[in-house]
Amino acid sequence: MGSTARYALVTGSGRAGTSLAAFDAALLDAGIGDWNLVELSSILPPGAEESELPPLPPGTIVPAVVARAVGRGPVASCVCVAKLESGFGVIAERAGESDPETVEEKARRDVEEMARARDEEIVEVKTATAFNEPEGDEWAAAVSAVVLWGRLPLGVREGGD
After folding, report:
1. Domain residue spans in the chain?
2. What is the pLDDT of residue 150?
């Protein structure tokens, strides 16, 4: 028995004394820091529906497309989801020591090119962008992600009910 694929766009930012700790803080801020993220490429399953993040236990293995930027200066990240006329979608991620407008513009351009390569028309576009700047000697991190899931584990209900 199948179930509808679901996804959530999330963002987070963090600062810390090390680059890894700043990245971890950004993941926690995005609500995905206690899960084991499995990196995906760039395809949104056909008919996938946007939803809130499910309440999963720590250590759960969760597929995600993640854009991450960590640095000593301003950092930005963006994920862009484009649903295509045929029913599936493409996802682009951009990040770097940049401003949020630049990474979002590049991610939007990426999905346009990805749709063109598939000879597809885009019917809907959504973005999630994060920006952060360090203070003092801290590292800054910005994370944007598309988290995907299908059937939830036994005993876990969507929306936390």
Report:
1. 6-152
2. 83
| Amino acid residing at 104 | E
Across 102-123, average pLDDT: 98
Asked if residue 160 has pLDDT above 90, the reply is no
Distance CA 101, CA 99 (A): 6
| pLDDT number for residue 152 | 47
Mean pLDDT of the chain: 92
Q: Is 63 buried (19+), middle (13-18) or exposed (0-12) by CB count in 10 A?
A: middle
145 strand-pairing partners: 10, 66
Amino acid at 79: V
Residue 100 sits at the vertex; the CA angle it makes with 17 and 7, to the nearest 5 degrees, is 90
Taking alpha carbons only, the member of 105, 104, 92, 9 closest to residue 48 is: 9
Number of alpha carbons in the 13 Å side-chain half-sphere of residue 151? 6
Question: What is the value of pTM for the model shown?
Answer: 0.90
Which residues fall within 8 angstroms of residue 139, CB to CB, at 6 or more apart? 15, 16, 17, 18, 19, 21, 22, 70, 71, 72
Domain 6-152 has CATH 3.65.10.10: no
